[in-house]
Amino acid sequence: MNSPHAEAIADCIRTRRTVKAYTGEAVPRAQLERWLDLACWAPSHRLTQPWRFAVLDQPAIVRLAEFLRGEPTIAAVPDPAKGAAKLAKLLDRLPALGAMIQVTWMRDANTAIDLEEHAAASAAIQNLLLAAHADGWAGFWSTTAALGQAKTLMWCGLDPTTQGFLGSVWLGRAAQVPPPPPRIALVDRVRWL
Fold first, then answer.
1. Which residue range(s) make up the domain with 23?
2. pLDDT attached to residue 77
3. Which residues of the chain have pLDDT under 70?
């Protein structure tokens, strides 16, 4: 028989959705600090805790949008033909966010260790998303190219020479929650030995 905690965790995992439409309500700093603390409880090899976060509240998001508008080369990466349209779409969405967190991990010259560090930071993002969802907020793990460019990371106080960009976590109150996506059956994903 499962404990009430186990059922609550299972429900949180199954009901979390990727939300891209937000109401514009600001996420309080205390909420963000709580979620970041929980993110830092993710497992990491050798307890290196390689994740790094740059938190943007709503005024910082406005400043980021101004910065992105002034950097036309950011829109051209990686696909110049689609870059301007993608940047315009991003700039339209940013004002509705309650907060955004840029997530990187500390790179390692050893490729095996670097992969472990990347995986640990990914686990931290999952903790962050689940914590936000459990508190009634929504999130989106974005890998939008403009947000991961070296100039953007440096603007956020991150070092692209020593840190790998894992993504931006968009947070806020959901304006619209999508239905659950279909999942591939367990029998097609698991082999019992």
1. 17-173
2. 67
3. 1, 76-77
Domains contained in the chain, number? 1
How many angstroms separate the Cα of 144 from the Cα of each of 89, 107, 124, 170?
10, 20, 19, 11
pLDDT in tens, 98-123: 999 999 999 999 999 999 999 999 99
Beta bridge partners of 143: none
Residue 115's CATH number? 3.40.109.10
In the sheet with 138-142, reading across from the earlier edge strand, the strands are: 51-56, 99-106, 163-172, 138-142
113/120 Cα distance (integer angstroms): 10
CA gap 164, 125 in Å, rounded: 14
Which stretches within the chain are classed as H helix?
4-15, 29-39, 58-69, 72-75, 80-93, 111-134, 145-148, 150-155
Place of tokens 């956020």: 156
Residue 98 lies in a domain: yes
| C-beta neighbour count of 33 within 10 angstroms | 11
Token digits of residue 110: 């050893």
Identity of the amino acid at 83: G
Report the pLDDT value the prediction gives residue 79, as an integer from 0 to 100. Answer: 75
pTM score: 0.94
